[in-house]
Amino acid sequence: MPWDRNQMAARAAQELQDGFYVNLGIGIPTLVANHVPTGITVTLQSENGMLGIGPFPYAGEEDPDLINAGKQTISELPQSAYFDSAQSFAMIRGGKIDLTVLGAMEVAENGDIANWMIPGKMIKGMGGAMDLVAGVKKIIVVMEHCAKDGSAKFIPACTLPLTGRNVVDMIITDLAVFQRPDHASPFRLVELAPGVTAEEVRARTTAHYID
């Protein structure tokens, strides 16, 4: 069975290390916060100006002034810190964030990522994605393996406007995990979702990768 959204997030959470400062993108990546391994302490950063994000609040306990970059209500922790966007992006651009987990519409075999717009569709803006892929030490993409029309999302070259070039370190989909040791190496298939075969992944992927 392919992984569901929570299982994909849980697999991404396995990449967290104690003491990491982590930025979580919109969508599936936000679920990573629910799967931080026992014994691991990470500090979550949101580019709208918060360091030390708490769990999602229970119904009726929401504070409309406390939101993440995806405009979801969140909670604060005793150690939470607040700051303006200039300080937030100084952290990101200055290489102070260890890892970011992002969604994507396309990832190319050379590590290019497209995740901020589809031409002709209304968008709110690029947000912090371009800064994140340029300034964060490790980039993990979590996405469905195929688009709604069945087309591959891990492809030879991105067709949508790029967010960053040659930046992705790991791809986690509902079918498999791909990883590369450095940005000069090709991606390697390193893990399959339970019940998914390597042949099935190959049939649904147009990008070149190593088995």
From TrEMBL:
NCBIfam families: pcaJ_scoB_fam (TIGR02428)
Origin superkingdom: Bacteria
Signal peptide from the UniProt entry: none
Pfam families, sorted: CoA_trans
Keyword terms, alphabetized: Transferase
Taxonomic lineage from the root: Bacteria, Pseudomonadati, Pseudomonadota, Alphaproteobacteria, Sphingomonadales
InterPro entries: 3-oxoacid_CoA-transf_B, CoA_trans_fam_I, NagB/RpiA_transferase-like
Protein name as it appears in the record: CoA transferase subunit B
SMART domains: CoA_trans
Homology family: Belongs to the 3-oxoacid CoA-transferase subunit B family.
Single GO MF annotation: CoA-transferase activity
